[in-house]
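Q: I have 190 residues here and want to know how they pack in 3D. Can you give me a structure?
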Amino acid sequence: MPDPIQLDYTFWSKLDTWSFREAALLLCGFDPDEVKGSGVRLDGRDHPQHLAEASKAYRILKSASDLGANAAHPFSVVEYALKKDLPMPIPLFEAVRDRFREERQHAGLELDESLGEAEPHPRTRQFLLRMIYVMARRGYGMELEQPFNDAREITADAERLGLSLDRGAIARYLREASQHFESVARQRLD
């Protein structure tokens, strides 16, 4: 792994999306800007040996069903990398964690240090999931059988409004809302 001290992880953590190529290189301690334009492809076997781990990480990220098609938010990338036990330089993890904490504090959310993430009050969470369910079903007319595909339309609408939403996170909330309220909705229709 290259010297991680030379990399400006704080800069990279502030971006709203990383391409899977950028994410794989960052996870393996390479500066994506230094590799850019070198003609190296990470999606096959024709890459320099020192980029072998980055190629593996790239292919694992590309196979993720709960990340975007070609890019994802740094929070989602780090969460997925931890889940898949991908390499991760400690300074990268710390930079993304610090951004996460700053954004949570700015939004006025409490940070549960034991979990490492903010959780709304259970009644607030139930309300938000109920609202997501109603908007997806009635507002978008979604059946919620394929939440990741359904999330594409919401992501596109958010981008049209100048907002950045992670497609994988939207899909997770759609899936959770569907699981919680689909049976309730069916009982009321019967």
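Q: Anything worth noting?
A: The chain is about 60% helix and 0% strand. Residues 36 and 55 are 14 Å apart (CA to CA).
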